[in-house]
Protein backbone atom coordinates (compact mmCIF):
# COMPACT_ATOMS: atom_id res chain seq x y z
CA UNK A 1 0.00 0.00 0.00
CA UNK A 2 1.36 3.41 -0.99
CA UNK A 3 1.09 6.14 1.67
CA UNK A 4 0.30 9.51 0.03
CA UNK A 5 2.75 12.36 0.68
CA UNK A 6 0.37 15.06 -0.60
CA UNK A 7 -2.88 15.13 1.38
CA UNK A 8 -4.83 17.48 -0.89
CA UNK A 9 -4.62 18.09 -4.61
CA UNK A 10 -6.98 18.60 -7.53
CA UNK A 11 -4.84 16.76 -10.08
CA UNK A 12 -4.16 13.09 -10.57
CA UNK A 13 -0.55 12.39 -9.49
CA UNK A 14 1.90 10.84 -11.93
CA UNK A 15 2.15 7.82 -9.64
CA UNK A 16 -1.24 6.60 -8.32
CA UNK A 17 -1.38 6.74 -4.54
CA UNK A 18 1.15 9.56 -4.08
CA UNK A 19 -1.60 12.08 -3.31
CA UNK A 20 -5.14 12.32 -1.97
CA UNK A 21 -7.10 13.73 -4.90
CA UNK A 22 -10.05 15.93 -4.00
CA UNK A 23 -13.25 15.36 -5.99
CA UNK A 24 -16.77 16.67 -6.05
CA UNK A 25 -19.45 13.98 -5.77
CA UNK A 26 -20.32 14.34 -9.44
CA UNK A 27 -16.68 14.06 -10.61
CA UNK A 28 -15.53 11.11 -8.50
CA UNK A 29 -14.18 8.40 -10.81
CA UNK A 30 -11.55 6.43 -8.87
CA UNK A 31 -8.49 5.08 -10.64
CA UNK A 32 -6.73 1.90 -9.64
CA UNK A 33 -4.33 2.52 -6.77
CA UNK A 34 -5.52 6.08 -6.16
CA UNK A 35 -6.65 7.80 -2.95
CA UNK A 36 -9.41 10.40 -2.73
CA UNK A 37 -11.42 12.81 -0.64
CA UNK A 38 -14.98 13.62 -1.68
CA UNK A 39 -16.96 16.59 -0.45
CA UNK A 40 -19.47 19.34 -1.12
CA UNK A 41 -17.43 22.52 -1.53
CA UNK A 42 -19.08 25.83 -0.58
CA UNK A 43 -18.37 27.07 -4.11
CA UNK A 44 -20.55 24.30 -5.53
CA UNK A 45 -23.32 23.80 -2.96
CA UNK A 46 -26.08 24.31 -5.53
CA UNK A 47 -24.42 21.93 -8.01
CA UNK A 48 -23.40 18.97 -5.88
CA UNK A 49 -25.36 15.84 -5.06
CA UNK A 50 -26.45 15.85 -1.39
CA UNK A 51 -28.57 12.71 -1.61
CA UNK A 52 -27.86 9.23 -0.34
CA UNK A 53 -25.59 8.76 -3.37
CA UNK A 54 -23.10 11.14 -1.76
CA UNK A 55 -23.08 9.07 1.41
CA UNK A 56 -22.45 5.94 -0.63
CA UNK A 57 -19.39 7.52 -2.23
CA UNK A 58 -17.89 8.27 1.17
CA UNK A 59 -17.92 4.56 1.99
CA UNK A 60 -15.79 3.75 -1.06
CA UNK A 61 -12.55 2.08 0.14
CA UNK A 62 -10.38 4.52 -1.83
CA UNK A 63 -12.02 7.56 -0.21
CA UNK A 64 -9.88 8.47 2.79
CA UNK A 65 -11.56 11.70 3.90
CA UNK A 66 -14.70 13.81 3.68
CA UNK A 67 -14.19 17.20 2.07
CA UNK A 68 -13.52 19.79 1.08
CA UNK A 69 -16.33 20.84 3.33
CA UNK A 70 -16.22 24.50 4.16
CA UNK A 71 -17.38 27.98 4.99
CA UNK A 72 -16.55 30.88 2.68
CA UNK A 73 -17.95 34.36 3.14
CA UNK A 74 -16.73 35.45 -0.30
CA UNK A 75 -19.09 33.19 -2.26
CA UNK A 76 -22.74 33.74 -3.13
CA UNK A 77 -24.17 30.76 -1.27
CA UNK A 78 -25.89 32.03 1.92
CA UNK A 79 -23.85 31.36 5.03
CA UNK A 80 -26.71 29.57 6.86
CA UNK A 81 -26.90 27.12 3.95
CA UNK A 82 -23.13 26.65 4.01
CA UNK A 83 -23.27 25.92 7.74
CA UNK A 84 -26.06 23.39 7.21
CA UNK A 85 -24.12 21.54 4.49
CA UNK A 86 -20.90 21.71 6.51
CA UNK A 87 -22.59 20.21 9.56
CA UNK A 88 -24.13 17.50 7.38
CA UNK A 89 -20.67 16.50 6.16
CA UNK A 90 -19.07 16.77 9.60
CA UNK A 91 -21.66 14.39 11.03
CA UNK A 92 -21.10 11.97 8.15
CA UNK A 93 -17.36 12.04 8.83
CA UNK A 94 -18.07 10.94 12.39
CA UNK A 95 -20.46 8.21 11.29
CA UNK A 96 -18.12 6.68 8.72
CA UNK A 97 -14.98 7.24 10.79
CA UNK A 98 -13.01 9.43 8.38
CA UNK A 99 -11.28 12.81 8.82
CA UNK A 100 -12.80 16.06 7.58
CA UNK A 101 -10.86 18.34 5.20
CA UNK A 102 -11.91 21.98 5.56
CA UNK A 103 -11.94 24.97 3.22
CA UNK A 104 -12.27 28.18 5.23
CA UNK A 105 -12.42 31.84 4.19
CA UNK A 106 -13.22 34.61 6.68
CA UNK A 107 -15.40 32.40 8.89
CA UNK A 108 -13.18 31.52 11.84
CA UNK A 109 -15.77 32.28 14.52
CA UNK A 110 -18.44 30.23 12.76
CA UNK A 111 -16.09 27.27 12.40
CA UNK A 112 -15.03 27.34 16.06
CA UNK A 113 -18.67 27.58 17.13
CA UNK A 114 -19.48 24.50 15.05
CA UNK A 115 -16.58 22.58 16.55
CA UNK A 116 -17.67 23.42 20.10
CA UNK A 117 -21.23 22.35 19.32
CA UNK A 118 -20.44 19.14 17.44
CA UNK A 119 -17.53 17.90 19.60
CA UNK A 120 -16.02 15.85 16.75
CA UNK A 121 -13.86 12.85 17.55
CA UNK A 122 -12.44 12.56 14.04
CA UNK A 123 -9.67 14.97 12.95
CA UNK A 124 -10.62 18.26 11.36
CA UNK A 125 -7.89 19.41 8.94
CA UNK A 126 -7.75 22.99 7.66
CA UNK A 127 -6.21 22.71 4.24
CA UNK A 128 -4.12 25.38 2.53
CA UNK A 129 -3.54 27.28 5.77
CA UNK A 130 -2.16 30.79 5.09
CA UNK A 131 -2.95 32.58 8.35
CA UNK A 132 -0.59 34.13 10.85
CA UNK A 133 1.01 32.29 13.76
CA UNK A 134 -1.57 33.64 16.22
CA UNK A 135 -4.41 32.13 14.19
CA UNK A 136 -2.51 28.85 13.89
CA UNK A 137 -2.18 28.78 17.67
CA UNK A 138 -5.92 29.37 18.04
CA UNK A 139 -6.74 26.46 15.76
CA UNK A 140 -4.22 24.22 17.49
CA UNK A 141 -5.77 24.99 20.89
CA UNK A 142 -9.08 23.75 19.52
CA UNK A 143 -7.59 20.51 18.25
CA UNK A 144 -7.31 21.21 14.53
CA UNK A 145 -4.65 19.87 12.16
CA UNK A 146 -3.08 22.28 9.66
CA UNK A 147 -2.01 21.54 6.09
CA UNK A 148 0.38 23.86 4.26
CA UNK A 149 0.73 24.36 0.51
CA UNK A 150 2.81 26.72 -1.61
CA UNK A 151 1.87 29.96 0.17
CA UNK A 152 2.00 30.44 3.93
CA UNK A 153 3.34 32.51 6.79
CA UNK A 154 6.65 30.95 7.76
CA UNK A 155 6.22 31.59 11.48
CA UNK A 156 2.89 29.74 11.39
CA UNK A 157 4.57 26.74 9.81
CA UNK A 158 7.32 26.79 12.43
CA UNK A 159 5.01 26.61 15.44
CA UNK A 160 2.83 23.67 14.35
CA UNK A 161 3.64 20.56 16.41
CA UNK A 162 4.97 17.76 14.19
CA UNK A 163 1.99 15.52 14.92
CA UNK A 164 -0.51 18.16 13.68
CA UNK A 165 1.25 18.95 10.37
CA UNK A 166 0.48 18.05 6.76
CA UNK A 167 1.80 19.15 3.35
CA UNK A 168 -0.29 19.57 0.19
CA UNK A 169 -0.11 20.96 -3.32
CA UNK A 170 -3.81 21.93 -3.65
CA UNK A 171 -3.91 23.81 -6.98
CA UNK A 172 -0.18 24.64 -7.07
CA UNK A 173 1.93 23.38 -9.95
CA UNK A 174 4.99 23.19 -7.71
CA UNK A 175 6.10 19.58 -7.18
CA UNK A 176 5.23 18.29 -3.73
CA UNK A 177 8.87 17.33 -3.23
CA UNK A 178 9.88 20.98 -3.51
CA UNK A 179 7.21 21.92 -0.95
CA UNK A 180 8.76 19.42 1.45
CA UNK A 181 12.21 20.90 0.86
CA UNK A 182 10.98 24.44 1.58
CA UNK A 183 9.06 23.36 4.68
CA UNK A 184 12.09 21.51 6.04
CA UNK A 185 14.21 24.63 5.52
CA UNK A 186 11.65 26.83 7.29
CA UNK A 187 11.35 24.42 10.23
CA UNK A 188 15.15 23.95 10.25
CA UNK A 189 14.99 20.17 10.29
CA UNK A 190 16.40 17.51 7.95
CA UNK A 191 14.22 16.78 4.93
CA UNK A 192 14.02 13.08 5.76
CA UNK A 193 12.80 13.89 9.26
CA UNK A 194 9.94 15.94 7.81
CA UNK A 195 9.10 13.23 5.31
CA UNK A 196 8.93 10.62 8.05
CA UNK A 197 6.82 12.90 10.25
CA UNK A 198 4.24 13.48 7.51
CA UNK A 199 4.22 9.82 6.52
CA UNK A 200 3.50 8.88 10.13
CA UNK A 201 0.75 11.51 10.40
CA UNK A 202 -0.90 10.38 7.17
CA UNK A 203 -0.78 6.75 8.24
CA UNK A 204 -2.22 7.57 11.66
CA UNK A 205 -5.02 9.90 10.53
CA UNK A 206 -6.11 8.49 7.17
CA UNK A 207 -5.44 4.76 7.44
CA UNK A 208 -5.73 3.65 11.07
CA UNK A 209 -9.40 3.44 11.94
Automatic annotation (TrEMBL):
InterPro entries, alphabetized: Metal_Hydrolase (IPR032466), TatD-like (IPR001130)
Cellular component aspect of the GO annotation: cytosol
Lineage, highest ranks first: Bacteria, Pseudomonadati, Bacteroidota, Bacteroidia, Bacteroidales
Protein name: TatD DNase family protein
Gene3D superfamilies assigned: Metal-dependent hydrolases
Molecular-function GO terms, alphabetical: hydrolase activity, acting on ester bonds; metal ion binding
UniProt KW Metal-binding keyword: yes
Chain sites annotated for binding a divalent metal cation 1: 68, 170
Amino acid sequence: MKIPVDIHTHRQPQVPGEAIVNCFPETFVPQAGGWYSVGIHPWRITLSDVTAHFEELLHHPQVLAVGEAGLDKLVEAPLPLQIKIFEFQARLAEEIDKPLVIHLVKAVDELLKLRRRLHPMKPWIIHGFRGKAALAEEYLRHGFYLSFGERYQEEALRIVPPERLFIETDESTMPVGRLYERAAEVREIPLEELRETIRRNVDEIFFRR
